Amino acid sequence: MGLLLVADIGGTNARFGLVEQTPNTSKPNYTASQQITLKCANYPDMGSMIKACCAEFKIDMPEYACLAIAGPIEHGFAQMTNLGWKFQINELRDQLGMKTLHVINDFAALAYAVPFLSADETKTLYAANSDPEAPIVVMGPGTGFGMALLVPENGGWKIIPTEGGHASFAPTTEKELAIKSYLLKEQSHVSVENILSGIGLVHLYRALANIAGVEAQNYSPADVSTKGLANEDPICREAVVTFCNTLGAVAGDKAVSTGARGGVVIGGGITPKLLGILPETNFEERYKNKGPMRKYVSDISIKVIVNDKAALVGSAAWLIHNTPALKPVLV
What is the DSSP letter of 62? Predict the structure, then answer.
């Protein structure tokens, strides 16, 4: 039995986990039995933080690890978007004395987790007879808006990362046209991420306040969400409802655009908090409202990931399935 180190590292916090794994087993384990969270600002670089993590766990440096990071990875070079950390993956692996070190994007890890999550780690928003042999689109609002495609390949899964959050926001109501018009006075391009994200809630609130002729308060994303869900502020409430309606519309757009007949899966930290209000919005109708493609979309299910540690599951699955010494034995 060996220990695998997995991590989900953002601009502020880094969550580390240890996965106990028997090499080449037919029934891999993807769940971290031990977990700790470290503040990234307390460390000068990635290597120092990983060493501190192992000290916290009271273990020697594991031979195998996979880090999911909030930032791009290209040609063996990784960069943390909000930390300024840059490193060569192979150099970091050698510095730490590991046999294998994988570094993947955090949303790619979330997407890769989907086939390996248990039933209680997701919640069905809309049930349909999705095609198990077709692609799955994994998307979701958080600090930004992430999106990736999971494509079946040789009995496993291939991740296709995308920048779908930067596609243009497509209004479909008069109010949404007014929202986009307001935002276009401040920026030349209004994207999906400008609406469906933490800061997107603030954009919606400010635009709706302007349309209503009400002075906007200096609210944070948490303020808009909390006041909207509690119905304490009518503009915040409308912002949250508009957010939910737009999320449904975008989910349908992405399903049609990618041919994701295998299902739509929504991740990120915001949507689980909206589960109580979603049935009161036009989320489902906006999802299906795709003209001649209504039947096409209506046959595609929607699930929400409710396990906030899913990226650790995805990191473990990626490490196990992409490391020859760990790869599961087919039976």
Answer: P
Q: Coil, helix or strand for 231?
A: coil
**Which residues, listed in sequence order, are joined to residue 77 by a DSSP beta bridge?**
74, 88
Strand order across the beta sheet in which 13-21 lies:
34-39, 13-21, 2-9, 64-69, 100-105
Please give the distance of CA 54 from its chain centroid, rounded to a whole number: 26
Q: pLDDT at position 330, please?
A: 62
Q: How far apart are CA 52 and CA 60, in angstroms?
A: 11
> Could you tell me which residues are beta bridge partners of residue 126?
302
DSSP notation for 195-224: HSSHHHHHHHHHHHHHHHT-PPP---HHHH
Contact 39, 53 (CB under 8 A): no
Mean pLDDT of 199-221: 97
Strands of 10-94 (E only): list them. 13-21, 34-39, 64-69, 73-74, 77-79, 86-88
Distance of CA 68 to the CA centre of its chain: 11
pTM: 0.88
Which token pair is 35? 């977990």
DSSP label at residue 295: H
DSSP state of 226: H
Q: Which residues of 191-220 are buried (b: 16+ CB within 10 A; e: fewer)?
A: bbbbbbbbebbbbbbbbbbbeeeeeeeebe
